[in-house]
Amino acid sequence: MFLIFSMATSLLLFGCPYESKFPLSNSSESTIDTLLIGSWDEISAKDEEPATSIEINIFNDHEYLSQMMSRDKGSLTIQGFRAFETTINHQKILNIQEIGNKPKYNFYKYVVSSDTLKIASVLKDSIKIEFKNSTELNTYFSKNMNSPKFYEDVRVFIKRKRK
User: Fold this and answer.
1) What is the pLDDT of residue 8?
2) Residues 79, 72: contact at Cβ < 8 Å?
């Protein structure tokens, strides 16, 4: 099934997201947000197939396993991810890692309201320093995450109804 965003597809979808060799926290400290579980389609023009669909599944007590399908000019790309949540200053952030690639993390703030998922990637240009560990990275997020230039524009997805 599918969710969370890869480095290559993220470039197409979200500009240039920030990459880190460290997550914001340890996945063993994370909990599952059951509101995320399911299939999501990006809002697009009427009568048009969604350009991006994500599906989020529970992998274990702390992590999600997901896939993302993206369509561009007749081409279909499917990518798998593992993800877990970190909450900083009451904001939920997904630590996302593409399956099969070197351990790198991208970060996406998200909010689920009713059947709507809003996500925004952390921009590469919003972080210009190197971190030695997750604690330093988490502290930086805590101090800077409310800056208007910290995140990419919000993307909106609607939960697909089960048939």
Assistant:
1) 38
2) no
